[in-house]
Amino acid sequence: MNTMGRVPDELIIKHLQAGESYEVDEMLAHLHRQVYGMTLKFVNKYKGVDADAEDVFQDALVALYKMARQGRLVPGTNVEAYLFTICKNLWFKQLRKRRETVDLSNEVGAMPELDNFPLYSLLEHEQQDAFAKLLKRFGEDCQKVLVGYYYDKLRMTKIAEMMGYANEQVAKNKKADCMKRLKNFLAETPHLLDALKPWSH
Amino acid sequence: MNSSDQHTIDEYLLNRLDGEELKAFEQLLAQDESLMNEVIERRQLLSAMEMVGDLQMKERVKRIHLTEIGRIEKPPVTTNPRKWIFAFVLLLIASLAIWWVMRPKAQTPPQLYAQYYQPYDLNFGTRNMDANQALAEAGGLYKSGKYAEALALFEQALTANPADSKARLALGICQLELGQYDQALAQFNALMDANDPLFGEQAIWYAAMTKLQQEDIVGCKALLEGILSNQEGQYQEKAKELSNKLQE
Q1: pLDDT over threshold 60, residue B77
Q2: What CATH number should be reported for the domain whose range is A9-121?
Q3: CB spacing of A186 vs B67 below 8 angstroms
Q4: Are residues B113 and B62 part of one domain?
């Protein structure tokens, strides 16, 4: 692990939890510099090509961000080691999916969180395509309001400010309208709801 | 259910309700089956939003990844017309600058004079020693560049014989050499006015040289035109060349 110019874990966690775009991107870029190299080596070592390492690493960064936003990264967590473990687990899952047999018993540490962790990259391709279509059908405003509220966990006042709405109530109404559209879309694609069931209780 | 009720459910699912607010909501949830169903449905929508958020986040992370590994895609080459106009103007300025440095430099009148002027090669024979004694001596002085001394003798000769066009030309050239331009022009004009068959063209040429020395470009060019109008003159080539240089 590259120890040069290391950002303290507390600061990384703080910025990821706050969800402000610029700081989040800075932290993710920092983690990329620290951890991507060893992920690449790891994936290459276990039957993967560079493109596999890129996919795994990007998915791991998404997972890490979500975990931070959900408060799963507690103070004292070694963020870089944690991220690398996510990478290894994701690659392990991928190999299982491909029915590849490799002995990873010495490599992969226990990380039960990921087994029940909702992650787009863990969906089947068909389901991923359906969500990509869903995203396209949303207008840009709906994307920003819904993702801002449900995913980045921003407060409605912050969303109203970000979108230039007159007040919080306007933002709430917009959210309700967009959620109605989401509900209609999911009613048209019931198989998507099935895919989400493991994570919906 | 209005947007505020839905928002309260969202806040509950996002673990943002606390204290009395949370307690009240949970009590209501235990009693109201339709609210419970609404919460279950809402939870599914939240899971869907997680996936949509992941998808967006993945795009963002991909950009970070590409930047970090130095493979950030360069924007396509645009055909912004302003860029082309700027490039054209830049090229034009560069071309003009190169032309300005490399262009043939226009010569000044004194430089042209130094290049084109030389005293006319005059020979004053000694066949009639008595009559031309003074002229022969003047010619010798003229050839050796002693113009002031030659001038006095040519004047004497012309007093004796005003029709001596050769002596008049020599006198004019001596005056030109000595910086007596107006006097020199008077000699050359006299020859031109007389349409002197022997030294008429020489008179025009040296008058042009005098004008050049005076830096009277217009006057010089007008005289050169006179030479050029005569197709067979001996100064044709020089006159044309000098005239062109004066145009630059």
Answers
A1: no
A2: 1.10.1740
A3: no
A4: no
Q: What is this model's ipTM?
A: 0.84
Choosing among 3.40.190.10, 3.40.640.10, 3.40.50.2300, 1.10.10.10, the CATH entry for A125-199 is 1.10.10.10
Single residue among B13, B48, B68 that ends a domain in this structure: B68
The answer on B128 and B58 residing in a single domain is: no
Residues A28, A39: Cα–Cα separation, whole Å: 15
Among A71-85, A107-121, B218-232, the range scoring the smallest mean pLDDT is: A107-121
How many other C-beta atoms are found inside a 10 Å radius of the C-beta of residue B41?
A: 15
| Structural domain containing residue B42 | 3-68
The closest CB to that of B65, out of A54, A156, A192, belongs to: A54
CA distances from A132 to A26, A123, A192, B50, B59 (A): 26, 12, 12, 13, 11
Rounded distance between C-alpha atoms, residue A33 and residue A98, angstroms: 29
Residue A1 predicted with pLDDT over 70: no
**Considering chain A, what is the average pLDDT of its residues?**
83
Indicate the residue of A121, A147, A172 with minimum beta-carbon distance to B52. Answer: A147
How many angstroms separate the CA atoms of A87 and A55, rounded?
A: 10
Which among A32, A33, A120, A183 is the top mutation candidate for probing chain B, defined by the most B β-carbons within 10 Å of its own β-carbon? A120
Dihedral, CA of residue B132, residue B135, residue B141 and residue B147, to nearest 10 = 170
